[in-house]
Amino acid sequence: MISYPSIDKLLSKVDSRYSLAILAAKRAHQIETGSFEMLDDYKSSKTVGMALEEISAGKITIDPHSDLKEAEAEAIDQKAQEDEAIQADRDAKQKKQASDDSQANE
Question: Which positions carry the signal peptide feature in this UniProt record (predicted)?
Answer without folding.
Answer: none
